[in-house]
Amino acid sequence: MSPLKGATPIYFGSFIVTPQVFHTTPLTFALVNLKPILPGHVLVSPRRVVPRVTDLTPAETSDLFLTVRRVGRMVERVYGATSLNIAIQDGVHAGQSVPHVHAHIIPRKAADLDHAGGTDAVYDLLDGNEGDLGSAFKNAVPTEEGNQSTEAGNGNSVNSGRRSRFPVVDNDARKPRGEEDMRAEAEMLALEMENEPLD
Amino acid sequence: MSPLKGATPIYFGSFIVTPQVFHTTPLTFALVNLKPILPGHVLVSPRRVVPRVTDLTPAETSDLFLTVRRVGRMVERVYGATSLNIAIQDGVHAGQSVPHVHAHIIPRKAADLDHAGGTDAVYDLLDGNEGDLGSAFKNAVPTEEGNQSTEAGNGNSVNSGRRSRFPVVDNDARKPRGEEDMRAEAEMLALEMENEPLD
């Protein structure tokens, strides 16, 4: 059962993501990731679908980042991490793939990316196709229009001119998760949010 | 003349950065960068020196990100950009080099990093020594204790285990800016903030 069973559908850009959502406020929601870079990699977005941070009202801005702070503390605890990367690609020329404001929260711990090149490899991963939410959703999640991308599997970004530092074989090797995986994680995290202090 | 002449010194970690500061609120300040990755790369920090986002009060969190939103809009306008990268390394295992919460704001435009590898090269730059604020400040800015780093010029990070993807020669070629350069930019941006709507 989804933590939000029966609720109004929640949109991330043009995609319905309700089964992935583990936390909502009146202005903000948090969702688990289709292709997490590291365990506990989640996203926080405003309920209103707007592309840029400047499009948010002050109330939406405050609520978004108070939610980032609280969700970040929760995933750091639940996934046994010691730090967090928080990143927003605010606009297409900053690498944004879904035109809906979203903060990445990535729990970090010592040596967690040593196999991939060290602490800062997170950014390569975020900007390889692993973090390319646009093509990931296109390739894996039916949209409300019911269509699937015709680009499935080619690893291209929806933003022309973006470059991946990953060989295509590596992208192909990382399949997006299934909806049941995401739903189970969302249910677990929804319960954990109940244990997280409000302030 | 500094925009904040006569004001209480403002600390970024253990460093006095008052001449670099172009905007303050009761809880937050914004400063120009010693080694900007791109024109208009600035930082926004809480006035209170705390290392983690979770250490902030809700009021500090709201004010920090309302300031990020407003400063981001200003630098995007002033530097003729079309997007922004916003990033926080929240804790040492996320690559944080100065133990004081700080959001990087980096104005972006089409093809601005084509010479360096494309849109997403910003992350390599952020996490090469260009963005390594700890060693940059150590190498260039006298601290309140009046000492200079003994590591000057070796390009090492203050966080052991971090890796730069830049050859050392490239790091050596990018000298930190002088205080007068930073002061002049801070004065210009302080005036621009006066033209920026509050909301």
From TrEMBL, chains A, B:
Substrate binds at N33, Q89, G95, Q96, S97, V98, H104. Keywords: Hydrolase, Nucleotide-binding. Residues 145-161 have a biased composition (Polar residues). It is an enzyme of class 3 (hydrolase). GO terms for molecular function: bis(5'-adenosyl)-triphosphatase activity; nucleotide binding. Its cofactor is Mn(2+). It catalyses: P(1),P(3)-bis(5'-adenosyl) triphosphate + H2O = AMP + ADP + 2 H(+). Residues 8-115 form the HIT domain. Residues 171-183 have a biased composition (Basic and acidic residues). Residues 136-183 are annotated as: Disordered. The record marks Y123 as: Important for induction of apoptosis. It comes from the Eukaryota. The keyword Hydrolase applies. A motif (Histidine triad motif) lies at residues 100-104. The active site is at H102. Its EC number is 3.6.1.29. PANTHER family: BIS(5'-ADENOSYL)-TRIPHOSPHATASE (PTHR46243:SF1). This is Bis(5'-adenosyl)-triphosphatase.
